[in-house]
Amino acid sequence: MPIPMPAFPGRPRPLLALGCLFATGFLAAPALAADNPGAHEHGHARLQMAVEENRIDLMFNSPAFNLAGFEHEARTGGEKSQLADINRWLETTPLVSTPAADCRVTAAAVELGGHMEAHGEDDHDDHHDHDEDHHDHGGHEQGKTTHREYDVSQQLECGRIGASQEFTSALMDRFQAMEELTVEWVSPSGQGSARLTPSTRTFTVNE
Do residues 15 and 109 make contact, with C-beta atoms less than 8 angstroms apart? Predict the structure, then answer.
């Protein structure tokens, strides 16, 4: 039975397809726990996949720190250029592929969002001097904390995906601050998950 792909203006099809699949219970409730605000953890990211024949729909979520090394608004020309390079990579590079590297991106959308949290003066260490308080340490600034995240959707076309198909991900090669990537997948015949690390970058989807 084909995976439904509803069309809504302004929303990428991969994001919607996966949202419908996971929201309707294809994955168990614990797998959805990463959707809560406490899931923002540097070094960790999440990738969801819907596999059908030779098409893969993907949703990727990660703290911006894992990709850019900072979470504040880009201030310098170098930071703005870095974010532009990250966007281009996410829009054009398959987040997963087969060992034959025969997957290609047919649609993609990248969003960088987040929020600022205000803090009172008592939240700061009194031992920090005035100059040090004005420096940004991994997205933490005087009086506020920045939490920004990337939300990426991709639709891929691959060579025919067979039973027990092995995949690799280029995310950890490109973004070395990523220490762990949780992968969750669903297909017409089942579901599963895997945890990728810098030393384990392949996983198998049982079609």
Answer: yes
pLDDT in tens, 164-196: 899 999 999 999 999 999 999 998 878 999 999
Q: In the chain, what percentage of residues exceed pLDDT 90? A: 56
Q: Render 72-105 in DSSP notation, one character per residue.
A: SPP-SHHHHHHHHHHHHHHHHS-SSB-TT---EE
Other beta carbons within 10 angstroms of residue 77's beta carbon come to 8
- Strand stretches in the chain, DSSP E: 44-52, 55-63, 104-118, 140-141, 144-157, 165-168, 180-187, 190-196, 202-205
Q: Hey, which residues does 195 pair with through a beta bridge?
A: 182
Model-level pTM?
0.73
Are 196 and 183 contacting, i.e. CB atoms less than 8 angstroms apart? Answer: yes
User: For 56-97, how does the pLDDT look when each residue is reduced to its tens digit (9 = 90+)?
Assistant: 999 999 999 999 999 999 999 999 999 999 999 999 999 999
Own/partner pairs for 198-203, CB < 8 Å, 24+ apart? Answer: 198/172, 201/168, 201/169, 201/172, 201/173, 202/99, 202/166, 202/167, 202/168, 203/166, 203/167
Q: List the domain boundaries for the chain.
A: 13-205
Please, which residues bridge with residue 109 across strands? 153
Two structure tokens written together for 126: 């009194």
CA–CA separation, 74 vs 56, rounded Å?
Answer: 32
